[in-house]
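Researcher: Predict the fold of Ribosomal RNA small subunit methyltransferase G.
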Amino acid sequence: MPSLPPPPAALEIFGDALPLASRYTSFLAGPGVERGLIGPREVSRLWDRHVLNCAVLTELIPDSAEVVDVGSGAGLPGIVLAIMRTDLSVTLLEPLLRRTVFLQECVDLLELPNVTVRRARAEEVVGEYAADVVTARAVAPLSRLVGWALPLLRADGELLALKGERAAAEIEDAQPVLDKFGVRVAEVLHVGRGKVDPPTTVVRAVAGKIPQPPKGRSGPRRGARRRGGAHGRKR
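Model: Structure tokens for Ribosomal RNA small subunit methyltransferase G follow.
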């Protein structure tokens, strides 16, 4: 795997977890690029634009939280959060087989006991999770993402979506959906000031109620997680 020296900010952000973060970043730059999960042009900016950008999201996540990372892809931000915060219980939710295989390899390589890989779409697992936090990065516009993420949260749980300069406009566009799901707060936050430049832009949406799962499925329960999500399912 290629070696990508971490920038000075990485030590400040990751601390003792930096060697593990470096190993993950090298895995992204090697197999991640070879398998098409990371674009070749992104290799030189993996640390600044991707890994550190995700790492500062931990500023918003409470202690010992259950986190579901929707559309996890190459593990951004889910794996980064799990590396930084061993107190978190992280589920990487991803529908594509080749991506879940990659994610499971990352988890095995890094020996992350606090991570579960699950091959599924968010709408397929409604009623199986009552997470404290749902995260998402480059998955979908907020107007669609809310409908996928909110049913996976407990009451007062939070959706933390990493967004770009249109974050405020996305909230405005998604207002009817936010109202439909009883979202109490929807706001734009900037995290990592003084650590990453520019700071990471996050849309935070706080669930005001527990959305009801479809008939025939049990209600949300905390800690309902399944091991080995990258294996045992047909294409």
